[in-house]
Amino acid sequence: MKSLLRPFRLYLTQAWLSYNGRLAITSPLGYLASKMGFPFFLMLFFIFMGKFVGFTNPLYIVIGNVLLIPASSSMFGVTNAIGDERGWGTLSYILGSPAPRMPVFMGRAFFYILDGFVTAIIGFAIAAGIFHLDLSRINIAMLVLCIFLVAITSSGLGFLFGSISLVSRDGWIFLNTFLSALYIMVGVNFPVEALPPVFQKVAFGLPLTRGILAARMALQGAGWSSIRQLVLGEVLVGTIYILAGFLCFLLIEKRSMVSGSLDAM
Amino acid sequence: MNNLRWGLLKQQVLVQLRVRTLNLLSLGLFVIQPAVFSAVGMLLSHAAGNATPDLVYSVIGGGIMGMWSGIVFTSTYDITSDRRYGTLELIVGSPTSLATVEAIRTLTNVISGLFSISLAFVAALTIFGYSLNGVNIWGAGISLVLLLFSMWCIGIFLANFLAWSRLSGSFVDYLEMPIAFLCGFMYPIRVLPGWLQILSGALPIRWALQAMNESLLGNHDWSFLVTHWVITVGISLVFIAITRWLQDKVHDSIRVSGELSSI
User: Fold this and answer.
1) What integer best gives the mean pLDDT of chain A?
2) Any CB–CB contact under 8 A between B178 and chain A?
C-alpha cells in the first residue's frame, strides 16, 4: 500500500514545491498583475483592433482571450518550472535522485493547471460584469469541463517547451513566440475558418483549438452530446503532446547521462 | 573631454548591441511579434469582411508594436541583469552616472527598434503594395523622430524604477500592453472611449504616433501636426524632469542605506 501511495505523494510534494518555489517571493499585487493584468490589456487591445476593422463581435475576442488564460498559465508555468531547475542549478540533483521520473516531471503541472483554471473562472465572472457577457444559456458543467481540459492539454505544450529549455537557454523565448502564434492559430480572436486552409489543418493539430470551440458551444448552452467529439479530440491531441513532452524529457535525461553536459550547455 | 564622451557613447552602444540587441530575444521582439500582431489585425479585418486590410495600422502599426516591446523589455532587462550579475553596484560606483549609462543604453534600444518599423514599412511597400502617393513624407519623418524621442523618454523613465526596487520590474513588464492599448499602436485613437482618450493624452507616444499615422494617411494639415509635435516634446520633457527627480531620490536612497543590491 505504501509503495502504491509513494508516487502519488511524490507527485503532490513535487507539485507544491515547484509552484511554491517559483511564486513564494512574488508579492500579491505582482501575482495578480501577472495573472490578470497582461491578459486583460491584451484582450482590450484586440477588442479595439477588432472594433477598428469592423469585427462586430467583441465578445468572441473576450471569450477567446479568457480561455487562453488557463492555457498560458499551464504553458508558462510548466516551462519555467522545468527550465528554472537548470537556471538555479538544481537539475543535477533531480537527475541524480532515484525518484521515479513520471511523478517528478508531471507534478510540475498540477498547481499551474489549478491556478489557470481558477483564474479563467474569475476571468469569466469579470468579463460577464464588464462586457455584459450573456450567461443566460450557459451549460456550466460543460464550460467548467472545457476550461479544465484546456488547462490540462496545454500543459503538454509546457512539457515540450520545458524539455527544450533543458537543452537551450532560449526555451522561454521559443515558448513566447509560440504563445504569440496562438493568438492567430487556435480561434482565440477570430474563427479558425478565417485562416488559410493550410493553417486550419495546423490549428486542429494543436491543443486548445477544439477545447476553445467546445467551450464557446457550452456558453451557448450545448450539452455533452453536442461537444463530445470536440472534447474527445482535445483529450487525444493533449495526451499526445503530454506524452511527447515526457518522452523528450526522458531522451534529454538519457543524453545527459552519456555526455554529462546538461547543466553546462 | 569630447573624446571621452564620444568614447563612452561608442563603447556603451557597442556593448548594448552585443549584449541586448543581437540575440534571439530581439529577433522575437522586433520581427516575430510584430508579424504576429499584424497577422491578427489582417485576419480580423478579413473575418470582418474587408477585402484589404488597413496597411498603416495593421502592418506599420505592427512595427511600432515591435519597437515598443523591444524598448520595454531590453530597457528593463538592462537593470535587472545588472542586478543579477552584480554589475549594478559597479556602474553606480563608477564616475559616469547611472543616468548617463541608462540614457545611452535606452538610446541604443530605441535605435535598434527602428529595425522593426523599417521592416514593417518594407513589408507594407513590397508585399502589400502600400503606395507613398499622397503621403506627407516630411510630416511622417519628423513624427517618427519625435516618436523615437518620446519612446526614449519613457524608456529611461521606466528603467529608473528598476534601479530603485527589484519588485517594480514585475510591474514595468506589464506596461507593455497597457501603453500599446492606450496609445493606439494598431488602431486610431478615436476608437477608444472618450475617457480613455483623455487618459492616453498623458503619454507623449500617443501624440507623436497620431501625427505619424495621419501623415502616412496623407494629412497635410501642418497646424494639426505641429500641435501634436509640440505636445509630444512638452510631455516628453515632463517625463525627463520626473526621471531626473527620481534618479536623485534613488541615488540618495543608495547613499543613505548602502543597500543597492537588496532594494
Assistant:
1) 85
2) yes
